[in-house]
Amino acid sequence: MSKKIIIAIDGPAGSGKSTAAKNIALKLGFTYMDTGAMYRAITFLAIRNGIADNIPAVIKLARGIDLNLKSENGVTRVFVDGEELTEQIRTAEVNAKVSDISRIPEVRSELVKIQKKMGETGNIVAEGRDVTTVVFPEADLKIYLTASIDVRAKRRLHDFEEKNISISLEEVKENLLKRDKIDSGREVSPLKKAEDALEFDNSALTPEQDLDYLLQQIKEVLKKNENK
């Protein structure tokens, strides 16, 4: 295709953004950008350094690190100052704190700069909580994925179980509700549906059905771009 395109997917935790974005990127041969992994990396480092509740220290941390994402076969590998943190950032402890860290305006500003720079190459599938509204407001296709809280909690619990992380379904649900409240209520880049985004509730769908529907929407966008 002559025009490099950007597909942006937003939605709450557990809505299936990551799975959908990975699958779409693999199908199209696009680059997968997991913006949430970047906020998780900052959160993990803040926890490890004992500064998670020290906002000035967290801001200094965000401004002073070299953060890179490498997408390989649908898996986003996360590197900070040359250290790989891909597995360490996917813990219940990070999940419980990441919304607090990501609501810090200066942290968001630093990471959005990196994300926009990555997007300049085009042909990417970006997912997060503000990629359709802040990072890539001019994306060729904007998707807002959602699902019921019960479905989202079960999905996230399954992710933890696969990693042998012990946590109850109620704890997962409480964490998700807390994150929803923080993400939607923060003053800077709140989680919300972009006016021109396609809203899609996938509560009753399998990942395969979800992918089929979204690919059909993307196919229409690609056709339009080819005709320009």
Provide an overview of this structure.
With 228 residues, the protein is α/β, with parallel strands linked by helices. The chain has one domain: Rossmann fold (3-Layer(aba) Sandwich), CATH 3.40.50. Helices cover 52% and strands 17% of the residues. It contains nine helices and eight strands. The chain has helices at residues 17-28, 35-48, 55-64, 92-102, 105-119, 131-135, 149-162, 169-185, 207-226, and strands spanning 6-10, 31-34, 67-72, 75-80, 83-84, 124-128, 141-146, 198-201. The strands form two sheets. Strands 2-6-1-7-8 form a five-stranded parallel beta sheet, with helices on both faces. It has a three-stranded antiparallel beta sheet with strand order 3-4-5, covered by helices on one side. Helix 2 packs across helix 3 (55-64) and helix 7 (149-162) crosses helix 8 (169-185). The longest helix is centred in the last third of the chain and has 20 residues, at 207-226. The mean pLDDT is 91.
Q: How many strands in all?
A: 8
Query: How many structural domains does the protein architecture include?
Result: 1
Estimate the helix proportion, in percent.
40-55%
Sheet bearing the most strands, described? 5 strands, parallel
Total helix count?
A: 9
Described by the principal axes of the CA atoms, the overall outline is globular
What is the CATH topology assignment?
Rossmann fold
Cα-to-Cα separation, first versus last residue: 11 Å
Strand order of the largest sheet: 2-6-1-7-8
Residue ranges: pLDDT <50 for 5 or more in a row? none
Query: According to CATH, what is the class?
Result: Alpha Beta
Radius of gyration: 17 Å
What is the fourth-level CATH superfamily?
Answer: P-loop containing nucleotide triphosphate hydrolases
Mean pLDDT: 91
Strand fraction equals: 15-25%
SSE class: alpha/beta
CATH architecture assignment name = 3-Layer(aba) Sandwich
Give the ordered list of helices and strands.
Answer: EHEHHEEEHHEHEHHEH
